[in-house]
Structures are given as C-alpha cells and as structure tokens.
Amino acid sequence: MNQFARYPSLEGRHVFISGGASGIGATMVEHFCEQQARVSFIDIDDVSGEALAARLTGQGGEVHYRHCDVTDIQQLRAVIEAAADEWGPIGALVNNAARDTRVPLKELDVETWDDLQATNLRHVVFACQAVFAGMQAAGGGSIINFSSPSFLRRSRDISAYSSAKAATIGLTRTLSRDMGDAGIRVNTVLPGWIITERQKALWWNPELEKQVLENQSLHQRVQPEDVARMVLFLAADDSRMMTAQTYIVDGGLV
Ligand SMILES: NC(=O)c1ccc[n+]([C@@H]2O[C@H](COP(=O)([O-])OP(=O)(O)OC[C@H]3O[C@@H](n4cnc5c(N)ncnc54)[C@H](O)[C@@H]3O)[C@@H](O)[C@H]2O)c1
Fold first, then answer.
1. Is the pLDDT of residue 123 over 70?
2. What span, in angstroms and rounded, lies between the C-alpha atoms of 254 and 140?
3. Catalytic residue check, 7
4. pTM value > 0.90
5. What is the model's pLDDT at position 193?
6. Between the CA atoms of 102, 105, 110 and 112, what dihedral angle is there, to the nearest 10 degrees?
7. CATH number of the domain that residue 185 is part of
C-alpha cells in the first residue's frame, strides 16, 4: 500500500516538466501520473522519453513526450504552445532540465559559460513567460524551478552551473512578484545528492557517498522520490499560499 499523500487538486491538472526523460525528472513524470495529472514532458533523450511515455500510457497514464532542447527558446515556446493546445492551459510548470558540467576555472571559456547558462538558467525564465497568459486566464498556477546546493556547499570546478543555480533562486523570488497578481506561485526546490544514472556514471564512488552520508543529518540516500513528493505538494493546492520560497530536500547536508 502506498503510504504517501494523494492530492485531489492534481487530478486532471496539466503539468509540464522539462528534462523528464531520466533522473529526477522521470520520477516526477511518474509521480504526477500516479496522481492522475495530465503530464506533458520534454527532453533531448528521445529513446528514454518515448520509452517512459509508452510505459506510463500502458499503465493508464495521460502522458505526452515531446522532443525539445531547452537551449532553443523558439522550440521551447512552440512545444509549450502545442501542449496547451492539446490539454488546455498548463496548471503546473516544473523547470527541471539541467546539465551539471564541471570545468576547472582555468579551462573555462566564454562559449562554455554561455552554453551552461542557456542549459541551466535561460530557459527557466522563458518557460515561465510562455505559461503566464494561460495560467492567468485559468486564475492561477504553480511553477517549481530547480536549483542546487552546489553553490552553498562551495563545490569545486562547477562555477558556471552553480552561478546559474544560484541565479534561479533570485529569479524565482522576482517572478513570484511579477506573476503573483495573476495568482501564480513560484518556488524553488534544491535536491541534495541524488544518485541518478548520470551521477553514477560520472561522479559516484563509494568513498564519496560515505562522506556525503556522514555529513547529512539523516544518514540515508536521498532518493528521487523524496524530491518528487515535495514537487507534488508545491504543484497541488495544498500549498496555495506558499510562494517565493526555497525548499531543500537533502537529508540535512547543507
Ligand atoms: N542529482 C543531483 O544530485 C542533483 C543535485 C542538485 C540539483 N539537481 C538538479 O535537479 C534537476 C534534475 O537533476 P538530475 O540529477 O535528475 O539530472 P539528470 O542529468 O539525471 O537528468 C536531466 C535530464 O535533463 C535532460 N536535459 C539535459 N539537457 C537538456 C536540454 N538542453 N534540453 C532538454 N532536456 C535536457 C537530460 O537529457 C536528462 O533527461 C536538475 O535541475 C539538477 O540541476 C540534481
């Protein structure tokens, strides 16, 4: 039996998730389907995106995968419009797509910096802009932006990503004011260290994990599901008066 919350306000709600083909994004796609939301998600990994959509559709979910590279703002605007044409205004937007590329300071060049701002920050504001009119007409909505504790922990060699993720918090707070008159809430979520396939392939090793778990107040792995449940709450009406805030799900690491 599932011991976790069910949110009636999410039933039938149109939720749009970027970077939903793998990692935390895929877990969120699955969790919103379980809540009987209508889930539109985008990614550049078509093989994983289509497989996930097919599996969840087979289980009775209402879910639609579309290819979109979030660094292409024209394409992003077009897929958001296509999603709204299919299932009506987006009620919850989750800006999750990102790439945590590490570059030592002495190797950082202008192209890499700009590329990482485009992958980790620029799309967030334009996705918010693209859903604004629909949410306003519907009387409100909820936006969840993804940041990272990497800048709080002063992680090495990750200045471009960390700067984008720090800026996401400032952007969220500013947009909460710009969009609040329309009843739109905007919040940020910071996951702790979640060992997704990418983390496992690139950075994970047993010593590092031991160190991280020792430094957490709760000495267990933080799972993608732990983050997804926070996002469900923020997308649901249960959090109706919560906006401009930052929520850290890291087992007490920072
Ligand atoms: N995993 C962690 O430990 C951790 C820690 C802190 C913050 N975060 C944040 O959580 C969010 C999810 O992270 P994750 O670990 O699941 O990442 P991930 O790398 O496992 O998955 C990211 C997804 O985004 C997609 N993506 C990447 N670039 C894209 C682009 N240009 N256009 C469209 N899709 C693109 C990828 O294909 C992938 O499916 C990110 O915003 C990340 O910064 C993760």
1. yes
2. 32
3. no
4. yes
5. 96
6. -10
7. 3.40.50.720
Amino acid at 108: L
- Asked if residue 184 belongs to a domain, the reply is yes
Q: Where are the beta strands (DSSP E) in 30-168?
A: 38-43, 62-67, 92-95, 141-146
Task: Return the biggest CA–CA distance within the chain.
Answer: 52
Residues touching ligand 1 (Cβ under 6 Å) are: 18-19, 21-25, 43-45, 69-71, 96-100, 119, 146, 148, 191, 193-194, 196, 198-199
Q: Is residue 63 part of a domain?
A: yes
One DSSP character per residue, 55-101 reads: HHHHTT-EEEEEE--TT-HHHHHHHHHHHHHHH-S-SEEEE------
Q: 129-186, pLDDT tens digit by residue?
A: 999 999 999 999 999 999 999 999 999 999 999 999 999 999 999 999 999 999 999 9
- In Å, how far from its chain's centre is CA 136? 21
Which ligand 1 atom sits closest to the C-alpha of 24?
Answer: 16
* 60 conformational bin, left if phi > 0, alpha if psi -120 to 50, beta if neither: left
CB atoms within 10 A of CB 197: 12
Domains held by the chain: number = 1
